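Ticket #4471: structure export looks truncated?
Reporter: QA, pipeline team
Priority: medium

Steps to reproduce: submit the single chain below to the structure queue and open the exported record.
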Amino acid sequence: MSVCVDMRSSGWVFPTALLSLYGFLANCRPAEPFLTPYLVGPKNISQHTVTNYLFPIWTYSYLSMLPVVFLLTDLLRYKPMIVLQGLFLVSNYLLLCFASSLPAITFLQFNFGVVTSTEVAYFSYIYSAIPPEHYQRATGFVRSAMLTGFTFGATLGQLLISLAGVSYFTVNAITLGLMGAAFIVSFNLPMPGRGVFFGSEVGEAADQLEEKPQDTDPGVTVGQTVKAKARWCSRGNLGRAGRRMWANIKESYSSKRLVYWSIWWALATANYGQVFNYVQLMWDHIEPSSTSSVYNGGVEAVCTLVGAAAAFSVGYMKVRWEVWGEFSLGVFSAVGAVCVFLIGLTNNIWVSYSGYVIFKASYMFLITITTFQIAANLSMECYALTFGINTFVALALQTVLTAVVVDDTALGLDIVTQFIIYGCCYGAISVLFLLRGLYTACAHYCSSRSSHTTQQIQITHTEGTDSLSTQM
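Actual output as written to the record:
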């Protein structure tokens, strides 16, 4: 009997449906858009403490956990890390509901760092659980479920607070119930037969030894033989996985164009992460939640819908991205920079909301193009590794920004100054890729023109040779 379920023989619909259900529930968090008003209001924590002390801990925790989680995800074959994410989501909202001391809320930030680091398991589980011919459809279902859950959760939270007059505590309690449901669903996910980098040699060795008699010493049990064979396979498997990873790294970053796309990914995602993490504090600065109505949930729902529509439109655009892609990154990064300045410098909350919607939609539009361009010419193994490396570099850059700009032990800047710096960073990204994009487009034009001229010379030479031959 096999020690693990062979997912490829069990079809793709069941694991995709179950993972989509988990993704919907795990991302359906009505309380998330109202985290800052909850902390500075009912939890009675100062905005300065939230900005310059608590939120940086999440960034540091995320960075420290990501490399470990990335390796364990593939080694343990995805499901255990998804279950772990479900467990930490439950503990996260237990702490939000019932913890009141600053040390407990500090631990909550580490707890959420674990939650975000394990998202890699959710996005990559499906590729080890189903046959490759179903990757595209399954990816669409899984990502749609996540976005639908996020949109539904943000909308539900806004309706509960604005129309039903529900307290922030009750919204967090409802979110806790949804996370509990996601945790239960995670246990029912089928266990993939192998990882992407760490194969299933151990399981296969055990299967072979269990299924046919072995000519071994009578004093040695089958179980002992299985364990010895498994240990030998594990050592070999680790070595093969390391060599495979290194080969995939060299293959992935051998293309100069892919390196430039990855640079944009890392730089833009680092700045996007800072804006996303601290925008609630910016809104609370413009209109304090203690004295004004809060529409964070509605704004996040609109952002997701507009961003999803922008990302969806990429598939229908007839653009030569290899020529104009880098220039597009520069143009839309400029749009993002203007929006970040708008968010941070205006005194009108609705202008700030609007700037955030446009900013997030432009980022989702560009990250979709970037993901497609990087994945287009890579194997699934290379793409998974590139995704992990780019995410880690982005998070490292975000951590540097947090440590220098936000953390109290360094500059500890106020929220408005922070957003001015994030806008300047986006502006620098825009200038870099506008220049690079113009160079790429000009180089392509000159190359095409030179090629056309060469063809014309060859045609003229051929016609002249033919004419001379005829006269002779």
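Status: closed, not a bug. The export was complete when the record was re-opened. Leaving a note from the reviewer for reference: The mean pLDDT is 82.
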